[in-house]
Write a structure and sequence with these properties.
By secondary structure, the protein is an alpha/beta fold. The chain folds into three domains: 179 residues, Rossmann fold (3-Layer(aba) Sandwich), CATH 3.40.50.720; 251 residues, N-(1-d-carboxylethyl)-l-norvaline Dehydrogenase, domain 2 (Orthogonal Bundle); 33 residues, Up-down Bundle (Single alpha-helices involved in coiled-coils or other helix-helix interfaces). It contains 21 helices and nine strands. A seven-stranded mixed β-sheet has the order 3-2-1-4-5-6-7, sandwiched between helices. Strands 8-9 form a two-stranded antiparallel sheet. The longest helix is centred in the C-terminal third of the chain and has 31 residues. The protein is globular and about 80 Å long.
Length: 485
């Protein structure tokens, strides 16, 4: 393949170097980001209003099209077309249309939140037709797309080398390094992005539970909670999600006295990527309980009418506030949050490790942590520790087995036990905090009580079992006369 950067610098044949299908906020912002770096671009959408809005930017490096053929004809060969459209059938529809206007050797990039199984199928189908396909996760939201996202491309390595100069220019930069890298084979990019989103669900749930503890348990007002999150975000918990949470607790609409947060309905929506993470983990027989419970709590939040009925039937009968614990209780809560956050990241990274074993993606976990350090929604100070752990030991199976991480985690155990036990006693729901602690206690348990489950399975279903000191598979006739009182 020709070098894209040379084509762009020379503006060979006055063609556009990069094409974008889908001119919503994300597509338009990313296209402007590309154009800002000197690359001539073309944008296409079947909405004339969005095309007009793009052309109204009056950017000499951007052309908007309502005609797909004219759009692809404007692109330099091999043509590079990125889609930022809703996941699912729409992606397949756009690909079908592109097959009528593209040639062998052209490149299609799916930058949406597609399910990795769909990406796997599309990769195989397009490879058979002679087109290059890249499934690329993009994180950072609207602002990230405009100023520098984190990107997780996977699939066709040859195609990645072609688009690499553009992606490295538009990505966020951490320590003068771009937050983009080739993730691995076939559907690897979208699998990594899916896990990223699962971790995102978990951390957002943990933050909401810490809010619940401070509000209901400690009786703190929004201003006090704002100060706690502000303090946390200046230390080891520093992260994008805590940064925006700090802002939320200080926000009032102009001319209004109430905090906007207090007027928002407590029903959380979801687009499905968290659920996909849990489903993939279950398919791989891998526990991700903090992510799983975060998904479940979003679902529970939507059952508003049922929750209202239940609140009337089962009123709180416990003394919920415990301000007498003292001002240092928020320090205990910070320890608990750190513990649970580490658990969420660890479960996500373990899922990536297992997927790599199963799907032969050729993932590098240190590289994934490295590009998550900037641009993406789950960027945080702790990702430096994750990067260091997997960089030092590329074969590390689980983050909790890293010595440095384990030392820090041990210092937070008292905090998580205190916070979870207090919440239970005072009727405050902390399912994600609790799941992180339970996961840890079983993960460090040499002998779990699941030997009983195996005995039960063999009793009622002849499913057999294995013994500790004897090789082989065994079955017993568990009849009551054989059991002495």
């Amino acid at each position: 393949m020709q070098n894209l950067q040379e084509d762009i610098i020379m503006k060979q044949e006055n063609k556009n170097a990069f094409g974008m299908i889908g001119l919503g906020t994300m597509g338009s912002n990313l296209l402007q980001n590309i154009a800002d770096h000197g690359y001539p671009c073309a944008g296409y959408d079947n909405s004339p209003e969005k095309v007009n809005a793009l052309n109204a930017l009056d950017n000499e490096n951007i052309e908007g099209f309502s005609d797909l053929k004219k759009f692809t004809d404007s692109l330099a060969r091999p043509r590079i077309v990125m889609m930022l459209v809703p996941a699912g059938e729409i992606v397949d529809h756009v690909i079908d249309e592109l097959l009528g206007v593209l040639d062998k050797g052209d490149i299609i990039i799916d930058g949406g939140n597609s399910h990795y199984t769909d990406t796997e199928r599309r990769y195989q189908e397009l490879e058979g037709k002679g087109l290059h396909f890249v499934g690329m996760g993009v994180s950072g939201g609207e602002e990230g797309a405009r100023r520098g996202p984190s990107m997780m491309p996977g699939g066709d390595k040859e195609a990645y080398e072609m688009i690499k100069p553009v992606l490295e220019k538009i990505a966020a930069q951490v320590n003068n390094e771009p937050t983009v890298a080739f993730m691995g084979n076939r559907s690897a990019g979208h699998f990594v992005k899916m896990v990223h989103n699962g971790i995102e669900y978990a951390i957002m749930q943990l933050i909401s539970e810490s809010y619940e503890i401070m509000k209901k348990g400690l009786g703190m007002d929004n201003g006090q909670i704002h100060e706690v999150y502000k303090k946390w975000n200046q230390g080891r918990l520093k992260s994008y999600l805590l940064e925006i949470t700090t802002d939320i607790f200080a926000f009032k609409n102009e001319g209004e006295n109430d905090f906007l947060l207090d007027n928002i309905r407590d029903e959380a929506k979801a687009k499905g990527t968290g659920k996909w993470t849990s489903q993939a983990a279950m398919d791989l027989h891998l526990p991700t309980p903090v992510i799983d419970i975060a998904v479940s709590m979003r679902d529970l939040s939507t059952l508003k009418s049922l929750r209202v009925q239940a609140s009337e039937m089962y009123p709180d009968e416990t003394e919920m506030k415990y301000e007498d614990r003292g001002a240092d209780y928020c320090d205990q809560l910070e320890e608990a949050f750190y513990f649970a956050m580490v658990s969420a990241y660890a479960q996500g990274m373990h899922l990536l490790y297992q997927a790599n074993e199963e799907f032969k993606y050729d993932l590098n976990l240190d590289l994934i942590a490295k590009i998550w350090r900037g641009g993406c929604i789950i960027r945080s100070e702790f990702l430096e520790d994750i990067y260091a752990a997997f960089n030092q030991d590329p074969k590390l199976q689980h983050l909790l087995l890293d010595k440095s991480v384990s030392e820090d985690l041990k210092r937070s155990i008292t905090g998580i036990r205190t916070v979870v036990s207090d919440a239970v006693l005072h009727g405050i729901a902390t399912p994600a905090f609790s799941a992180s602690l339970t996961y840890f206690d079983d993960f460090r348990c040499e002998n779990m009580p699941t030997n009983l489950i195996q005995a039960q399975r063999d009793y009622f279903g002849s499913h057999t079992y294995e013994l500790k000191a004897k090789e082989g598979v065994f079955h017993t006739k568990w009849v009551m006369e054989n059991i002495k009182e």
